[in-house]
UniProtKB/TrEMBL annotation:
DNA-binding region: 123-219
PROSITE patterns on file: OMPR_PHOB (PS51755), RESPONSE_REGULATORY (PS50110)
The keyword DNA-binding is annotated on this UniProt entry: yes
UniProt KW Transport keyword: no
4-aspartylphosphate found at: D49
Keywords: DNA-binding, Phosphoprotein, Two-component regulatory system
Highest taxon of the lineage: Bacteria
Identification of the protein by name: DNA-binding response regulator
Molecular function per GO: phosphorelay response regulator activity; transcription cis-regulatory region binding
Amino acid sequence: MRVLLVEDDEPVAESLRRGLRRYGFEVEWVTTGAAALAHSAPCDLVLLDLGLPDTDGLDVCRALRRRGDLPIIVISARSDETDRVVGLELGADDYVSKPFGVREVIARIRAVLRRTQPRPPDAGPDRYGSRLTVDRKAARVRVDGAEVALAPKEYDLLAFLTEEPGALMSREQIMEAVWDANWFGPTKTLDVHVAALRRKLAGAITIEAVRGVGFRLETAGGDDGDTRGADTS
């Protein structure tokens, strides 16, 4: 998986490069909007900073989107709601505000790629730990082989949290991804859905609450990994 990283802040870029490579991504790094638009090597996704030295990253986002459907994730210190909305309206597939952790970025990349790239027709359910499987194609969840009935938003929440087991996701990130990118108001509904998942999937996963921040999903046995396309027959 090849990522074009457009970021002029060297410490941020180096941290992302190291982290992405640990997860098996190939990273091409450029520091300006002009270099991003001139980049001709094939890539699968763009991580785009908005605060570039030669041009506004939003203009780069617009230009890249006009060229095609290449997934774009904005990474920016601009946390203002207007910038986020404009970025998404110009064609960005997701928007991550600095500061962020590498695991959060990995989770966002995987989520975007799941939305934008079709799964192989023969891909099976994803396995998390020894007990839980999530069939994203059929939107079915099983524990120990038995299907668990989840409400639509309960399934969406589980699907998001399992994008990167072990990663801490803030309440705002979860609300934006599962409910609405422009969510306003209290997040009490998130607590209700987390409680429902804990009850229905008891023992198969643990959803840890980090006070004042958000939630972290851990699989049974402490296995943070997952097996894509696992055979559950």
